[in-house]
Design goal:
Number of strands: 0
Structural class: mainly alpha
Number of domains: 1
Radius of gyration: 15 Å
Length: about 80
Amino acid sequence: MQNLDVNKTVNAWSSLAGAVFVPHTEEEYRQLVVLLDSLIDEVGEDEAHALASLMEIIGVLIEKYEDEHVPELTVE
C-alpha cells in the first residue's frame, strides 16, 4: 500500500474539491451528472485511462444520491 503524502494531497484536492463532492441537493447532483458525462466522453471504455477511477467514483456518488432521493419507477 502506498503512503499518502498529505501535503501533495491537500494541493491536489484543493483544485478538485469544487467539482468532486457528495451531492446533497438536486443542483449538486446535476453538476456531478454533467461532470460524469464529460468524463465518459473522455474515457469511454478505456479502463486503463488515467481518469477511469475518477469516473467510477463520480458514478458511485451519483448512484448513492439516486438511491436516496429518486423514487423507483414501478410497473403495474
